[in-house]
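Worked example (supplementary).
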Amino acid sequence: MGLFTELKDSISRVTDRLFSEEEPKRIGIYGPPNAGKTTLANRIARDWTGDAVGAESHIPHETRRARRKEGVEIERNGKSVEIDIVDTPGVTTKVDYEEFTDEMEEDDAIRRSREATEGVAEAMHWLREDVDGVIYVLDSAEDPITQVNTMLIGIIESRDLPVLIFANKIDLDDASVKRIEDAFPQHETIPLSAKEGENMDEVYENIAEYFG
Amino acid sequence: MPKATNTDDPEGPDGVQIDLISGERMENMATMEKIRMILDGVHDGNIVILEEGLTPDEESRLIEVTMSEISPDEFNGIEIETYPKSKTNDSSLLGRIMGGEESTAKLTVIGPANQIETLHKDETLISALVSRD
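After joint prediction of all chains, the assembly is encoded as:
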């Protein structure tokens, strides 16, 4: 083997190694409050790392800080991707502490609403600056054509971020995946129940394929 | 440029002020000037209607600034409505390149969250109920 060939092979091995050790992609889990974002983040994290990401609750704005689970490696059908899951607070344009007063004392409700507003602002900042792709989670039993959904999908598209739409809560009687597919036909919609673990194979296939 | 102002006269007519803001008035304003104009109007209890709406980045910053101004018993945030994107629009990168700059022009209605309630919305109609606080 000539000197030139050896040198070429050596450079090739170094560059292969450099480019194969890619940084994990930061995938933001976005959506309106109570769509099941944290339940999904926990399901993915538990399935692939054994740990959870955060607490889940039926009361809106349980997640009031963006939380990152690093180095989640997902493999399906020969494709694999290493991602950092960023579970974000549900995005809204309004927060009224009185919505929480049935569930807690007024002082706690006021504190929760203050933290929720900070969390929404933080989520918007992450979307503009720090995520490489988005999983947009919707509750299949709710009307998807809301202003927040329309605006957020528009913001994601304007930044050319890859996005998968997850039609969550398909275990509910009122669930309609078609309503979500019709609302955002320009994007792939994957039905699932993060709570019941339904259709998670297709979820992981799509994550590995789309973000890998 | 004159500022859109509310009628502060306590003896004045009991009603809701609506500011219809033309695209021409907005076109040379910086993002924060637009957001300040919108939120100042909403804080005064006005309904602000933008002829040409905001860009996605401006919408993102509007949400962020709105969140920073929410205060218990004083300001709960905003209700904002625009038409959803038409299903026939091509939003792909290629589509945007082939079709040139995507227009952001879309009528946008913004008001205080405690005074405006959306009754119905589809691709061609926004129906809202506006109440005096």
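Two points are worth noting when inspecting this output. The mean pLDDT of chain B is 82. Chain B touches chain A through 33 residues (CB under 8 Å).
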